[in-house]
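Supplementary Methods. Inverse-folding protocol.

Structures were first reduced to a C-alpha cell string of length 97. This string, shown here, constituted the complete conditioning input.
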C-alpha cells in the first residue's frame, strides 16, 4: 500500500554531501546538471550553511576572475614612446647600412 513502485526512485533519493556540492556546483550554475541533480544541489545548499559559504566564495572568485580577464591598460604615451624608440633605432641602422 505504501509501495509507489518507486524502488529505484527511493534509491536515488540520497542526500548529497558537501563534497558533492563542491564537485557539482560548477556544472549546476552552468545549467549542465539534470533537473533532478540540480534539485538535489539547490535543496542541499538551502539547508547547509557551509555550502552557502562555499557558494558565496565561489561566486566571489568568479567575479574577481572576470575583472582580472579585462585587458590591462597601457600607460598613456607608452605606445608613442615605444614607436619613437623603434624608429630611432631603425633610422640609425638604416642610415648605417
Ligand atoms: Zn553542505
Amino acid at each position: 500500500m505504501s509501495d509507489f513502485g518507486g524502488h529505484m526512485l527511493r534509491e536515488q533519493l540520497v542526500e548529497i554531501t558537501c563534497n558533492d556540492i563542491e564537485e557539482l556546483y560548477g556544472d549546476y550554475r552552468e545549467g549542465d546538471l539534470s533537473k533532478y541533480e540540480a534539485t538535489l544541489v539547490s535543496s542541499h545548499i538551502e539547508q547547509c550553511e557551509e555550502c552557502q559559504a562555499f557558494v558565496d566564495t565561489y561566486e566571489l572568485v568568479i567575479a574577481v576572475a572576470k575583472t582580472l580577464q579585462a585587458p590591462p591598460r597601457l600607460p598613456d604615451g607608452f605606445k608613442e614612446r615605444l614607436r619613437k624608440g623603434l624608429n630611432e633605432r631603425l633610422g640609425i641602422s638604416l642610415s648605417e647600412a
